[in-house]
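Consider the tokenized backbone below.
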């Protein structure tokens, strides 16, 4: 099993993250594009990222900006997110050799993405999601997104992994199923997120088990909802989830938010090997 860490807010530089990754004996770092230091113009400094990884015997996966909204109704915004995805795929192509050397050649390099819910309009008796109302337009944009990603990735060993967050909307499930019908798209199971929303996404994820290639592993609770806890601090049957990850030949990011929680999680894993 390949275990990695997220980029942590306590670590302000790539060097600090790599130092912690090596200290804990982890295999990779998931570079989070929500951070200013991992914006696309920074990631395009390929030599720094590549050579630093080689020097330390690790590799990277990538987490796209959580605000990424490829179905935004504003064409200027939509095009900016498409261009961000294109350039991120181009960066990922340079990182595939690192994955092959220091990771598992049987696992694709993943670019993780969230589904943006879009805006909703509040009526006296209900809330209306605009993507639900204008579903045909929404799906048109996803068709464009899929076609572009297929072209940009080409023959490279890269997959775009769609992550669950606070419960997939029905219109999102239809879009995800459309993406998963392409070999270029897979699923990320964030087990803490699904626990915090009372496992509402589990039936959908289980239905598409064959597409699971990436896991975000952290503990969580249902009442009150909490996630990103250190392993062992919540209510999740972690061994069951890890067995599923192994069955799917998926890599796992120990996605805590603090160094202390990450250390505790790594120790939890070591004690159960």
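A designed sequence for it:
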């Amino acid at each position: 099993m390949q275990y990695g860490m997220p980029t942590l807010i306590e670590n302000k530089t790539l060097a600090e993250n790599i130092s912690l990754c090596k200290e804990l004996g982890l295999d990779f770092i998931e570079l989070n594009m929500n951070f200013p230091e991992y914006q696309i113009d920074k990631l395009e400094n390929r030599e720094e990222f590549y050579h630093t990884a080689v020097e330390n015997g690790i590799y990277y996966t990538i987490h796209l900006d959580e605000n990424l909204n490829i179905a935004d109704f504003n064409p200027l915004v939509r095009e900016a997110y498409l261009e961000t995805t294109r350039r991120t795929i181009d960066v990922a192509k340079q990182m595939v050799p690192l994955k092959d050397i220091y990771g598992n050649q049987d696992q694709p390099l993943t670019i993780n993405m969230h589904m943006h819910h879009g805006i909703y309009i509040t009526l006296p008796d209900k809330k209306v999601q605009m993507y639900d109302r204008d579903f045909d337009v929404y799906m048109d944009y996803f068709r464009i997104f899929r076609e572009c990603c297929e072209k940009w990735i080409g023959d490279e060993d890269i997959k775009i992994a769609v992550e669950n967050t606070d419960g997939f909307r029905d219109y999102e499930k239809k879009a995800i199923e459309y993406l998963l019908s392409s070999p270029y798209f897979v699923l990320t199971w964030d087990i803490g997120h699904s626990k915090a929303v009372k496992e509402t996404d589990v039936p959908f994820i289980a239905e598409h088990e064959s597409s699971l290639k990436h896991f975000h592993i952290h503990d969580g609770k249902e009442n009150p909802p909490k996630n990103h806890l250190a392993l062992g601090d919540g209510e999740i049957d972690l061994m069951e989830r890890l067995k599923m990850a192994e069955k799917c030949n998926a890599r796992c990011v120990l996605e805590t938010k603090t160094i202390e929680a990450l250390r505790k999680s790594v120790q939890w894993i070591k004690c159960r090997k």
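The chain is about 45% helix and 20% strand.
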